[in-house]
Amino acid sequence: MHFVRSGRGAPVLVFVHGFACTHEDWRAQLEHFAATHEVVACDLRAHGATPGRAHECSIEHYGGDVAALVNNLELERCVLIGHSMGCRVVLEANRLVADKVAGVVLVDGSRLADRDPPAAEAAARASIDRVGYPAFAEDLFRQMFFTASPMADAIVRRAMTQSSAFGAELWSRMARWDAEHMDGAFDAVRAPLLAIQTTKRDANLRRSPLKRGESSPWLDYVRGKGARVETIPDTGHFPQLETPGALNDLIGAFLRMT
Question: Phi, psi at residue 249, to the nearest 5°?
């Protein structure tokens, strides 16, 4: 597993990227928090500089890899911070190293399914097969941004190129994990839990920005699981890149409470 590590100070912050992304998406957070904390960010299997094969790409494998990283680096007190798919990964990792977790932060998470795991997996795969993976991936990532920019274009291109070999398998397995394991993963969290949300999704998984004071079924769900909820309104799916100052402030405030 490729990872970067810098800074000093506890708790250690462990950053986990999302679907078809890399650790580089956290560069503003790594630079900011390295002044006061040890920071670690990794590339999951088949992402960035970490090798991986399609059959290895699953939330279960990723969570195990992050937990192994925490153990191998001998991190005795850490805060797990995940973005998008990375929210699932840090929840899965927490189940394995809960005694070392001082807090969990979920950045713009979501849930694809909440019942019938085999059907959830099949439905996710069917949505890809209807249009083909390249078109599915481009649409998925285009709707994550509400303002056109060179940065948005670069992330879409990176996602389509990077995930072509594994994206369909991982996306469908992720839907199955949501239906089969998400409830239990939340129930295993014993540390303080923060959800920072910028977008919402409708029944057809179309994404739109949250407005100030607005909630969503996802936020209602995580509140029911004991999460403290904060929102950054009128922002796309990548607040760590689009509004890094606001995201850093919310994470910083959470750290002062842990």
Answer: -65, -40
